[in-house]
Specification:
Helix content is 25%, strand content 26%. By secondary structure, the chain is α/β, with parallel strands linked by helices.
Length: 166
């Protein structure tokens, strides 16, 4: 495991500014488990938004569910608001193939029909396999397909990145 020379805290500030511009009246933040959920929770607080952000899991709608199975530690979706007719901003840490986003959209529509869903990500690493693009990304990078970029959070709530090889 190595450290990537990206300042996650500086990128978080850029993400907060980008999400602020995407906000509509009565919009709600929904973070994709787990890094996106951490980001959405902090954005909710830092942007002074009322209520709580939502958390959504991709585990039940993944296209690799048969081979991967369900993680025993997988958190379940928690949406503390009605999604029907609501403008949602979907928050994720790293966008890669788009398959997790597709699975999350399927999960989201199990709860209702939002007015709109807008995707904002901390890092877009390219490599899309589906036609999914963020409305905002704080950074765009390229990594080899064998590398995995993960957001980490320390005990104080500060963000950093980890890169796993192979």
């Amino acid at each position: 495991m190595s450290s990537l020379l990206l300042n996650a805290e500086a990128l978080y500030s850029d993400l907060a500014a980008g999400v602020q511009k995407l906000l509509r009246p009565d919009a709600a933040l929904v973070g994709i488990w787990s890094g996106g959920a951490w980001l959405a929770e902090r954005l909710q607080r830092d942007l002074g938004l009322a209520g709580a952000s939502g958390v959504i899991s991709s585990s039940l709608h993944r296209d690799d569910f048969g081979s991967r199975g369900m993680s025993a530690s997988a958190d379940h979706t928690k949406l503390p608001f009605d999604v029907n007719g609501r403008h949602l901003i979907l928050i994720d840490d790293v966008l890669y193939t788009g398959r997790t986003t597709r699975a999350v959209l399927n999960e989201l529509f199990d709860f209702g029909r939002p007015a709109s869903v807008t995707l904002a990500v901390l890092v877009d690493r390219g490599g899309r396999e589906l036609p999914i693009e963020p409305a905002f990304s704080a950074a765009r990078i390229h990594l080899d397909a064998a590398q995995r970029l993960s957001l980490a959070k320390d005990e104080a709530g500060r963000f950093s990145f980890e890169v796993q090889e192979g």
